[in-house]
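Continuing the series of single-chain predictions for the mutant panel. This is the parent chain; the variants come on the following pages.
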Amino acid sequence: MKYAVDEIIDNIVKLENIENGDIVEIELFELPKNLEEGNILVYEDNKFIKDLNEEELRRKRIEDKFNRLKQLGEIMTKKDN
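Parent structure:
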């Protein structure tokens, strides 16, 4: 299963299951070091590992969506003038 690091508070990390949206809380010591909000983790072989490829793909998709919305906003602004 794949999880996104949603929030880190003290020693508790909230992970969102990417497939179904469920939230789970895990103690920080059970996860890879240097963890940041937005990281993508895969749970396999009874441990969590960072999935840097999936993380990059998700960041790229978000950036692309943002840019399309920004362009749409610019078009709508020009249309109103």
